[in-house]
Fold:
Amino acid sequence: MRGELETYKKKRNFGDTPEPAGKKGRARKAGLTYLIQRHAATRLHYDFRIEVDGVLKSWAVTKAPSRDTTVKRLAVEVEDHPLDYGTFEGTIPAGNYGAGTVQLWDRGTWEPQEDDLADAFARGNVKMIVHGERLQGKWALIRMKTDRGKPSKRNNWLLIKEKDEFAVPEEGDANMAIDASITTGRSLAEIAAGAKSSTAPKKTTRAAPTKAKAPAAAASPASKPRPFVPIQLCKIADYPPHGSGWAHEIKFDGYRLQVASGGGRAIVRTRKGLDWSDKFPELAADAAGWPDAVVDGELCALAENHMPDFSALQAAISSGDTGDLVYFAFDLLFDGAEDLRKLPLSERKARLQAYIDRIPEAARARIRYVDHFATTGQAILESACRMDLEGVISKKLDAPYREGRSTTWLKSKCRGGDEVVIGGWTSEGGGRFRSLIVGVQDTDGLRHLGRVGTGYNQTLLKTLLPALKAAETDKSPFVGKDAPKKSRAAGATVHWVKPVLVAEIEHGGYTDTGSLRHAAFKGLREDKPPAEVTERPHAPSDPSKEPGSHTNPVPLAIPGERPAAGKGKGKLVVAGVTISNPDKILWPAADGRDAVRKAELVRYYEMAAERLLPHVGDRPVSIIRAPEGINGQKFFQRHAMPGSNPRLKLIDVKERKPYVGVVDVGGLVAIGQSGGLELHPWGCKPGDPETPDQVTFDLDPDEGLDFADVISAAKVLKRELEGLGLNPFVKTTGGKGLHVVVPILADAKSRIGWDQCKAFAKAVSERVRAADPDHFTTTLAKKARGGKIFLDYLRNGRMATAVAPWSVRARPGAGIAFPLSWGQVKAGLDPAAYTLHDAAALLKKPDPWKDFRAGAVNPRPVLKKVL
Structure:
């Protein structure tokens, strides 16, 4: 594994190539460089490089790395490169080794997943955690072998994305479409032509250093913001499009705005080109410091749960308190003088990300880059609907930006949310406002759609009522046989208004008579003229009714209590949560056992809630999800997206994103609805992520050991813990081991921190190992186990988790991590006997962990004994 540069230097003529001659750097253990260079040589490929021992270990990857865990990329190991090659971007002249154009495609840092990196290279299994701008999370380089099991002479490896929250199922080759430098935003063609970006250095053969500070966004004195650019709009779709080649973005609930910056000035314009810079002075002031460009995006107000809130946006505009509004940028139309509209979306978004990186820190407070998902649009829509977001915008990655509505941008909605024209309002005794009367424009006039009776508050009414009274008229603006009459408004006074006001509403579809159902007011749309409101509001999408979704009979019982075939048709609602695809098979039939479907999982969560919630409630929870079942894609979800399913809680753990939390049975069922099979909570006090309230020891046997060895080990650990005055509890893991868990007090007088908790667990484990080193080990590496029980104490640090008691496992057999009494931990104990198939009978038995919290003791005196 020792880094060397002799081969690199022998292959290059540094008098002719702009590549750096470089020298070996000093070996480091942290902050290691990671990068990918897109290299248009004889064949286009991607050079994957990681810093090891003072050089860049390098592999030529045949295609762009994919975040799809099923995609394996051939990676051919090549010579080591110097560290300063990591900033090289330019063209290697013809006749030189590697002739062609090099683009810096991704950059960041990396860290090994194992302590012994030399051993990992020797074994040909290098696992890493990447912190890049385009790639993140866990990745693995696996050296290929010949048919005889020996390493290949060509040093061929496979680059594979591992399962974590950064995995993107079905992404496939989507990254191949991204042709933009991560530092300068230039395409390969622009680099080859010597084109410069606003941050490119004077020599086009080198990219700006990774940590270079972006220059101020000054332009020539003659430059100024560009005129308004007609915007692209979405067509409505019932469901997101299938297949690859699409990017799916969250639909934001705000005002569509175009921001043009230039010459130290900026103009904020509406979708029709109206200058609204005075309405949003803080955004306009920020944008004056942006590099010259035209940006397309959505301005939003965020509620306390970080969800876009249109009503809050209206209130902010009404009060003039717009300083906290956020501009979500999703497209870049001009970069300086360069018109980007003909470029594919994949390149425009890459250029946009690079553009935002160039914005000086002082002017970047209100702009956010809108990321996209290249997984199935259906999965994104279901996630958006579960979190009460508006829906999804699906865009073709290879399409240019086109004025007007286009099939390359499709909008699928969770809620019926659209614009309507106000034709009147009703009031009741004392003149108190009651409801709006609304419609849409037709060739003959305003067509009636019904009333909007909810969604009003005093802040909104302060803006709405003056606007209504200013437009009041004696004549009804509605036409047609369905036009409302004053006589129909029993108990209320009807007021007509000229059709000049547009309202944003949300609704639940239509009644049998064609009126809006459950319509709620969200705010006035000052940015949209009534003449454009010509389409009836679109009914919300129902992800469970997508073509190809199951409509078979729905089982309403857990395993062992199935209804007769043909019964239980219709939607399944459990604990107030609507279950889509309830007959989706999550665990296939095996070993004479029936398949387990989603309906049965959520019914189990409902029945087991009383026992589960004391161990997961109000704590950050990581979830193993398998929406297509255990034989499909599985991923580990820690963080929540902006907003959340109403039945879930967002828990701030002072990280990049909040975690998901569960507070009631509806939250458990909502996790099951999303395909969440395993629950891995923090071992903390409910409502206090910084205070541990239990210590977990995972007894993990080496290959070849019998379960009887695990039972013996658990009893040894029990005696040690009881000797320290603690009350240990035990459970199966749903796998081959056991967990021994100790509850501890977490009040103000007794609380300990995470470092102390982990140190205590390690000290106890070391005491057990030292007393019987032939049977126990505390070393993580597999090769050190040698027929021993690994005492895993690492589950006790901050952010570490262990599977919850009563949680199901995403493994064949549908096992349950089952709480045991110590009397059950004896010869003949079979952990495979506790499964979801037997849930009904298991839940009828007494809970061995009923008194778990009552067994908690003060950990401080115990710490003094072992530390």
The two ends are 38 Å apart (CA to CA).
